[in-house]
Amino acid sequence: MQIKPGNVVVLTGASGGIGVHFVRAFARLGTRLVLAAYPGNDLQALRSEIEKEGCDSVDMICDLRDNQQRVKLIETALDRFGRVDVLVNNAGVEYTSFFHELTEAQIAEVLAVNLESPMMLARLVLPTMLAQKRGHIVNIASLAGKSGPAFQESYAATKAGLIAFTASLRSTYRTEGPSASAIVPGFVEAGIYSRLKAKTGVSAPALLGVSPPEAVVNAVLRAIECDSPELIINPMPVRPLLAFTALFPRAGEWITEKIGANNFFRKAIQQDKTTPK
């Protein structure tokens, strides 16, 4: 699907981390934007910034744990612009912890924001996209959903679910007009990784590397225009490792441990527990 000026893009997690980069990229393309974030810090300032450049937009503080607010978000887009051409499910929540130390509320929050919300928002925009016979849903997943790193059970489960959900969407609507793509970044110098690094002083494993946010933005635009099923973004090649792990799970576990992803999160927990609050 070619992105054209005037297309309507709904973006969650708009004012945090990599979301800001998505907003500016879509604004430069002349799209009309519906910006959602929670709690919405800097959301109005971001909207003012792009509107000065001529971008027609609306912003909404939207708690994606609440289904009524999800419904309101899509209703706002349709009331204001009459259509939705692209939905980018970017918002995400992560807790680095021993799984048994998480509260039920924390686990429920990760499930609601990372998986339930993208599914429900997709359900809400699909009737409009089917009527238009065009549209694209972009789900921002993670390599955690492919590799299952330590201390990331809830997050990894939601991202794996998001990848599978995207594949099923593509199969169901293959001939109907709408499509979907899963974007699968590793560590990105924005958002969750940046906050974790700033809080603990721990950097990503050198063997995995860190991608700039622009690489993820470019992948999203490419996925929409090329109708890509899935794009992995990482400075080091990881597809061979993922394929090897699928064939030899036990050996794959050993390699994953040696690469250092598990140790990164382990150090983050240790550093967090020793840092004065």
What does this structure look like?
By secondary structure, this protein is of the alpha/beta class. It has a single domain, classed as Rossmann fold, CATH 3.40.50. Helices cover 53% and strands 13% of the residues. It has 11 helices and 7 strands. Helix 2 links the parallel strand 2 (32-37) and strand 3. Helix 3 packs parallel to helix 4 (104-132), helix 4 packs parallel to helix 6 (153-172) and helix 9 (239-247) packs antiparallel against helix 10. The longest helix has 29 residues, at 104-132.
Strand order of the largest sheet: 3-2-1-4-5-6-7
Q: Using the alpha-carbon principal axes, give the shape.
A: globular
Low-pLDDT regions:
none
Text of the CATH class? Alpha Beta
Beta strand count: 7
Describe the biggest sheet?
7 strands, parallel
- Estimate the mean pLDDT confidence: 93
Helix content: 40-55%
**Which structural category do the helix and sheet elements fall into?**
alpha/beta
Any idea what the radius of gyration is? 18 Å
* Run of helices and strands: EHEHEHEHEHHEHHEHHH
Number of helices: 11
- In CATH, what is the homologous superfamily? NAD(P)-binding Rossmann-like Domain
- Looking at the structure, the CATH topology is Rossmann fold
| Beta content | 5-15%
Measured distance between first and last alpha carbons = 48 Å
Q: How many structurally independent domains?
A: 1
Q: What key attributes describe this structure?
A:
7 strands
Concise structural overview:
The protein is of the alpha/beta class and 277 residues long.
